[in-house]
Amino acid sequence: MSETRKDTQGSPLPSDELLTVSEMVRRTGVAASALRFYEELELIAAVRTAGNQRRYARHMIRRVSLISVAKRLGIPLSDVQDAFADLPRDATPSQEDWQRASGRWKRTLEERRRGIERLEEELMGCIGCGCLSMKACGLLNPDDALAGGGSGPRRLD
Ligand code: FES
User: Fold this and answer.
1) In the chain, what are the domain boundaries?
2) How would CATH label the architecture of 5-143?
3) pLDDT beyond 90 at 41
């Protein structure tokens, strides 16, 4: 009877599905150091051979690919961790799993786009102004929430 190996989260892994670190690097284009880092963050998991070498289940390729996509989109790894928390550890994420995860990232990107649009509107006002006032300019003094209420002392009203 052959022994079923388990990943670091205890999920079973058939040994014929395991990839070496160099195979993972070649298949994903991600450096071995990055794979170790993703492992530390529990975004991916590996098993150890008798010689203490790391091996990855084949379905971890998909996870690494999703991490690479998230990086390209500027999605923080903490958001990737949130999205992966609901994904199965012992199988390739399904289409529904991926839709759920990417839906969160879409909302993040939409919020970012709205923020850039707000900045663009402020910049357009500044292009026509040029005052560079620390009191009036929202771009130079973005944390001055009271400035939105008009000029002069706002707390004395
Ligand atoms: S430069 Fe005048 S409001 Fe920004």
Assistant:
1) 5-143
2) Orthogonal Bundle (1.10)
3) yes
